[in-house]
Write a structure and sequence with these properties.
Layout (H helix, E strand, L loop, with lengths): L2 E10 L2 E11 L4 E5 L6 H9 L6 E6 L2 E2 L10 E4 L11 H11 L4 H14 L15 H13 L5 E5 L7 H18 L2 E6 L2 H7 L2 E6 L2 E6 L1 H6 L4 H7 L2 E6 L2 E6 L3 E3 L8 E10 L3 E8 L6 H6 L4 E6 H6 L7 E6 L4 E3 L3
Parallel strand pairs: 3-8, 3-9, 6-7, 7-8
Antiparallel strand pairs: 1-2, 1-4, 4-5, 9-10, 11-12, 12-18, 13-17, 14-15, 14-17, 15-16
Helix pairs in contact: 2-3, 2-4, 3-4
Length: 335
């Protein structure tokens, strides 16, 4: 089911949490709302699901506006950051609970609950209580519970944030598998750039209640629309020039003899080994930086080198080295 937001706004008194945003999420897409804390992404999700009332604008799900519809009438289901499983019910009965509230008979609701548990690979643990399940297993039960009512749109609020890094990666794969298998529209709130890039067909980068950019992950990374997107997504140097601001990917910076004509003399201020790559922080005289960037990092520029390239030409803090980039590697940013 497609989802469209038209001038969607949420105010809390004098404060504007979501500021007249427009967005189209195609049917069957995996969309991630990405941004820092307080940018309005969870409020947007809750307005889509009917858990917050919009101050202005419309939410359209499928063919109709749903501004006055209850959450149950929208064809959506919400998976919250807190799984909120009933501690006295086993996994099967937790999943079946919403069907029970709809008056569905015991045999039918348990059969549907088991089918959903099998989908999330939890059928063999259907009889366990939440306290007997790991965090990842509880998350799968919560996902099955959200899916059992047959929603057309699944809303996920930071569903992986409570998991350890290894399990988070594993569950990303499972979420994408289930979304593809069921053909549902997923709208997923996250503050993790890696998570959004790995999962989504559509990345929506939010800042201060507004949408900075909405595009596929490759476009967002390769061609960030604004300086905020370039900095938040990471992997870019944001550089202010007299004719405007540009972004240059850190892995496309050139050091030493490869810096080329017009290179800047830069001082190495940090070296971080990352396994397959080495991140080199650089400072250069005469390089103008946006005020926001000054607060984020002491290094004016970052160059990402392969481990082998760094091993062939090691660098240490205090070294001076030419740094440059190809003109084709620079991407102009909106003001």
């Amino acid at each position: 089911m497609n989802v469209e937001l038209i001038g969607l706004t949420k105010r809390y008194g004098a404060a504007t949490a979501v500021d007249a945003i427009d967005l189209k999420v195609p049917s069957g897409a995996y969309c991630c709302l990405l941004g820092p804390s307080g940018c309005g992404k969870t409020t947007t999700l809750r307005m889509i699901g009917g858990h917050e009332r919009a101050s202005a604008g419309d939410v359209v799900i499928g063919p109709k506006a749903v501004g006055d519809a209850t959450p149950a009438e929208r064809g959506t289901a919400m998976m919250f950051q807190s799984y909120a499983l009933f501690p006295h019910l086993d996994a099967r009965d937790n999943v079946a609970f919403s069907l029970r509230m709809r008056g569905i008979g015991k045999a039918e609701r348990r059969a549907k609950a088991m089918a959903m548990l099998e989908l999330v690979q939890m059928g063999h643990l259907a009889g366990r209580l939440p306290a007997q399940l790991s965090g990842g297993q509880q998350q799968r039960v919560a996902l099955a519970r959200a899916l059992v009512t047959g929603p057309k749109v699944l809303l996920l609020d930071e569903p992986l944030s409570a998991l350890d890094p290894f399990l988070r990666v594993r569950m990303r794969v499972e979420l994408k598998r289930i979304q593809t298998e069921l053909g549902l529209t997923f709208i997923h709130v996250t503050h993790s750039q890696e998570e959004a890039m790995a999962l989504s067909d559509l990345v929506v980068v939010m800042n201060a209640g507004r949408i900075e950019q909405a595009a596929d992950p490759r476009t967002v990374f390769e061609r960030p629309a604004t300086a905020f997107v370039a900095r938040f997504i990471g992997g870019h140097n944001v550089i202010r020039r007299p004719d405007g601001m540009i972004a240059v990917r850190a892995d496309r910076m050139r050091l030493g003899e490869a810096a080329g004509p017009g290179a800047l003399a830069a001082r190495v201020v940090a070296v971080e080994y990352q396994g397959t790559s080495v991140h080199v922080g650089l400072d250069a005289d005469g390089l103008e930086r946006p005020p926001e960037a000054l607060a984020e990092s002491p290094a004016a520029l970052t160059a990402v080198l392969s481990d082998s390239a760094f091993a062939a030409r090691p660098l240490r803090p205090g070294d001076t080295i030419p740094v440059g980039w190809d003109a084709a590697a620079a991407h102009r940013l909106d003001a």
